């Protein structure tokens, strides 16, 4: 295997995003689907160019429209890093976000080796000097200086471990071990609550994580796809008021969906018109369900089939919005052809806030809610501060908020914890009962148990009824009670 030699420390390894990606490989004349053409620059300079047969590469993820490569300090492509990213995206089908993280982690590692003038392929010498262990020492220093946290450091170490495993699969043979392999049996409960065990293969590179629990000082959170912090009832009301004050009905309505149904951000913002009961009743409280994930156009975590239930009055609000001039104007600018496949939440330019996985090739984009996060930072947070509500949140926290509201409501009604557990598991589409149990173990503050969900859902509805800003009309002046 060719080794990447250490070059001048003045340059840096960096990731570069390629757009409108098309992939080919050389093949026989019989299998050819195209052939490379001489570029205008080659013709202008009278450079030799030999055409040869090629065929299109179909990646595992067929909507690959953006891809990262890594450029070395001298401006050339870093072969090993770029080949690894190619395999991750095209062969393994890793998501764009995962490949972006991999690219950044590889650049960070390569630059650390560059700064130390170390050859990343040299595993001779004592353990502390080998690339993997040396990089761990670099990350340890950053953790101690509070530059990064343990989860970020472990993600970087995992990326580097996978990189070297890929290199070993292609023939790289280190002089000594790159890490110690650790095998252990882990017991867990499956989705039905039965005890199971699985063999886990890991290494000695990751840092040990601190054990957190709902009772951990300053750690009132729920682990559900990350650390989620339920928003207390007073702040939920403040949030709705701030959303109304923003005069952005798309953001207002999307947050109402998250608070009353608990879907993740990718599900909320890839909802289509076909999800909505267009003849829903204004004051209906029955749940109306649509399917997301799998073969639908609506994204879910891992593409898993999920059933999203929203109160009928929320369907009514969305149906009313879909018939508004405000929405019709945005829809007219969209490139989606059919009404039933049209996104509910569109920007002023007719583009989705979150491009669904199956639409990435159509939009030539992997947009994943950046405008939602920008709205929260630039607009919503400022309104909250102006209203003297100094609390922060992420969109994903709305999911935990919905789950806690659901738990408190049915606990107040006297339902058994076992029945509540099953209800929350189904509404939040949890694959494992273990995740759901974390909601029951969460210790809310006194403010968080002031009202039941049924009371609060009525309150949300009363606020929404007063705060309509559909059709671009000026906001109503009646106060929020």
Description:
With 481 residues, the chain is of the alpha+beta class. The protein folds into 2 domains: 14-169, no CATH class; 222-472, Orthogonal Bundle (hpI Integrase, Chain A), CATH 1.10.443.10. 40% of the residues lie in helices and 11% in strands. The protein is built from 16 helices and 10 strands. It starts with 13 loop residues before the first strand and ends in a 15-residue tail after the last helix. The relative contact order is 0.10. Residues 1-9, 38-47, 211-219, 445-453 and 469-481 have low confidence and may be disordered.
Offer a concise description of the structure.
The chain is an alpha+beta fold and 481 residues long.
Any descriptors?
481 residues; alpha+beta; hpI Integrase, Chain A; two-stranded antiparallel sheet; disordered N terminus; disordered C terminus
| Helical fraction | 25-40%
Strand order of the largest sheet: 1-4
CATH top level of the largest domain is Mainly Alpha
Would you tell me the structural class of the helices and strands? alpha+beta
Number of structural units classed as domains: 2
Number of strands: 10
The main β sheet shows up as: 2 strands, antiparallel
CATH architecture of the largest domain: Orthogonal Bundle
Average predicted local confidence, pLDDT: 82
Which descriptor suits the 3D outline? globular
The end-to-end span amounts to 71 Å
Q: Whole-number radius of gyration?
A: 26 Å
The low-confidence parts are: 1-9, 38-47, 211-219, 445-453, 469-481
């Amino acid at each position: 295997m060719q080794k990447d030699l250490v070059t001048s420390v003045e340059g840096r390894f960096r990731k570069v995003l390629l757009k409108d990606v098309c992939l080919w490989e050389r093949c026989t004349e019989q299998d050819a689907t195209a052939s490379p053409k001489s570029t205008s620059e080659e013709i202008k300079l009278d450079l030799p160019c030999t055409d040869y047969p090629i065929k299109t590469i179909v990646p595992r993820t067929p909507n690959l429209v953006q891809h990262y490569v890594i450029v070395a300090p001298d401006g050339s492509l870093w072969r090993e890093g770029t080949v690894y990213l190619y395999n991750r995206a095209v062969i393994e089908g890793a998501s764009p976000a995962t490949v972006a993280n991999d690219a950044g982690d590889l650049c960070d590692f390569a630059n650390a080796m560059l700064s130390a003038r170390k050859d990343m392929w040299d595993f001779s010498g004592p353990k502390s000097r080998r690339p993997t262990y040396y990089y761990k020492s670099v990350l340890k220093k950053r953790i101690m200086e509070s530059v990064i946290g343990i989860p970020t450091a472990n993600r970087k170490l995992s990326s580097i471990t996978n990189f070297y495993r890929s290199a070993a699969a292609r023939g790289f043979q280190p002089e000594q071990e790159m890490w110690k392999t650790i095998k252990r049996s882990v017991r867990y409960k499956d989705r039905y609550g039965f005890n199971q065990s699985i063999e886990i293969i890991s290494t000695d590179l990751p840092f040990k994580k601190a054990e957190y629990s709902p009772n951990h000082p300053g750690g009132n959170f729920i682990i559900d796809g990350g650390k989620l912090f339920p928003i207390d009832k007073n702040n939920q009301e403040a949030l709705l008021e701030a959303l109304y004050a923003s005069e952005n009905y798309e953001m207002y309505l999307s947050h109402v969906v998250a608070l009353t149904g608990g879907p993740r951000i990718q599900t909320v913002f890839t909802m289509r018109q076909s999800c909505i009961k267009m003849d829903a009743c204004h004051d209906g409280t029955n749940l109306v369900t649509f399917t997301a994930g799998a073969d639908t156009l609506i994204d879910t975590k891992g593409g898993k089939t999920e059933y999203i239930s929203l109160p009928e009055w929320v369907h009514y609000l969305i149906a009313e919005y879909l018939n508004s001039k405000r929405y019709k104007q945005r829809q007219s600018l969209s490139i989606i052809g059919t009404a039933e496949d049209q996104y509910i939440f569109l920007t002023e330019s007719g583009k989705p806030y979150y491009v669904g996985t199956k639409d990435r090739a159509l939009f030539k984009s992997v947009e994943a809610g950046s405008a939602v996060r920008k709205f929260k930072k630039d607009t919503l947070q400022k309104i909250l501060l102006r209203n003297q509500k100094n609390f922060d949140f992420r969109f994903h926290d709305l999911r935990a908020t919905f789950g806690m509201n659901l738990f408190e409501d049915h606990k107040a009604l006297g339902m058994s914890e076992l029945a509540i557990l099953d209800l929350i598991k189904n509404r939040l589409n949890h694959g494992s009962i273990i995740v759901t149990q974390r909601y029951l173990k969460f210790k809310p503050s006194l403010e968080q148990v002031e009202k039941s969900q049924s009371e609060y859902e009525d309150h949300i509805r009363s606020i929404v009824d007063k705060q309509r800003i559909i059709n671009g009309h000026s906001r109503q002046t009646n106060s929020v009670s």
